[in-house]
Amino acid sequence: MSNTKVKKITDYTSFFRKRFFTIIISSITPMILVSGIILYQFNISYHEKVHAHLAELVLKHKQNIDGFLMEKLADIRVLAKTFGFDELSDEAFLQDRLEILQKGYGPVFVDLGVINSKGVQVAYAGPFKLGKAVYSMAEWFETAMKNEYVISDVFLGLRGLPHFIVTVRNTWKGEPWIIRATIDFVAFNNLVGNIRVGETGFAFILNRKGALQTKPLFDIVPEKGPYLEFMNAELKEKDNVQIVERKDDSGSKDIYVADFLKDGDWLLVYQQKFSDAFSDFHKALKVAFAIIILGGLAITIVAYMLSTRMAYRLARMDKERQMMDEQIVETGKLASGGELAARRAHEINNPVAIMVEEAGWIEDLLEEEDFKEGKNLDEFQRSLNQIRNQGKRCKEITYKLLSFARKTDSTIQEVHLNDMLEELVAISAQRARYSNVTINTNFQGNLPFLEVSLSELQQVFLNLINNALDAMEKTGGILGISSRLEEDHVVVTVEDNGPGIPKANLGRIFDPFFTTKQVGKGTGLGLSICYGIIKKMGGEIEVRSTVDVGATFYVRIPLTKQKGKAQQEDIATA
Amino acid sequence: MSERDRAKTDRINLLLIDDEVGYVNVLSNRMAKRNIDVTKSHSGTEGIQALRKQDFDVAVLDLKMEDMNGIEVLKIFKKMDPDMPVIMLTGHGSEQAAKEGMKYGAFDYLTKPCELEELLEKVREAVRLRR
Asked: What ipTM did this prediction achieve?
């Protein structure tokens, strides 16, 4: 017993564990899969979005910067086309032109210079005292002489300040000459420096040699990083914006976006910390993870609660069943014990018979004359009568005890059901009134008579009526008794609106010795006797009940009895 | 010819078979007072032996006995003396056995404990029908 109990408890634990993990796995797995796929897709599309955004940003600024450069170049080209070398080599005239340019475009143009084919600056207008500087050895002069127009890299030059220049070559009297304009480095620098995104996004320009053309917001080392790769990538695709994500020495990831400027001479690089560029994404990711973790937690809690409840219910059901089993076993024991007792009960009849007969014998003897004069004769006779009467009582008691198994007298006669029921109602009326129960009868007239034992049938319905009255004893209520003909059966219903019969008891209500009454109040034989009697008549008895609504007993008795039994009865009564 | 004498004086010669000694004794005493000569047998075997010795007007046979089933005794009785009516005594709840006995030619049955008058009535009826 204790072994099975221990086993059962572990069964619940393993049941709980299985339930728990099944729920968790079946809930969390799809959640993780779905969120994983969504996050992966989100990651890709967000990457693409960021890349596209940055590419567009760089492209826009490249166009902006290219536009700026071309515009300045165009200004100077117009100047060179409009005026000849002779006019422009006049410093006062040149000064006027510079002022006009500065008025028109702001202080973008720092100065203007006109240089002849020998590399000598013949005229200069601007803030620096460059005078007749000779540029024949300057790198930019060589380039400028070779090309119709040039936008130079940033260099220090004679003035010792970083700047870059725009040159336009022209010819005057067969000789080439150059007009040169210095672009304000600060203005240009701002053009690039203003490209700011987030906290770490900044832009700068490198030339082909990897020299910085603008001042970057943060220090960069052109030799490190992917800058040179961008330069070399030129050959592959010139127009496309290049994007690279790479870890730097400190291990933090950077995103690099680059595009060529100035026909491939310069490289516009935009650089941002990866974490900064994807900060929104990471925020979303954090929220998503928080949701997943909270969801997982919720699932775990729910799984735990559900499993606990299921295990608890299972345990309770098992316990109830076990209790029921025990009760059934007990009832069975009782039933068999009771049957044994009943079988033995008739043995008491022998000594009782002897006692009664002995009393009779004494009576016989008292008849004799010797005793007739005895003064206590009456008392003797009274006493002997008492012995005989008590003997009869013993007999009746054993009869009752035995009657649930085997019926005593079962003389078949014509029974008029409605008359019998009315008689029973009349008998029960007083008790019903006492219990505040109203009896409603609804008998179908002209019922054919039944060929059954009247006393048995009386016993059945008296039992049902008494049970119904017992059920409503405290509360009062309505007792409905009806009879009707259904094909070849007579159906009698006995209905009460008492507390009803719990489901667990419904199946056992006809079992012998099953009772819900207090010990000593009922034998638990009443309904089993009814069941036996009705079955013997070839009929059926059943009960339907709802707790707190009431109980209804249906008794179906066939109009014609089974032949075999009828014959037997005939022999018995012959 | 004592049997003839008894018949003339309307005395009934009865064989009582029951293993309850006390019951047999008191019943025979009471019956003797009512013109019935009772031969007492306390078992089936004794009853059969008694019937071998003499004839009886009627037999009262308890169906439940230690040594032999009353039905078996009845069958033997019916072979030995088919004309002798046999009244069976049965315990309550054993009517089935009594009904079986009816098939084998028993006159009637009574459930124990029964009223003496009831038994006597059956005995007299059986004897009257036989004569």
From this structure: 0.82
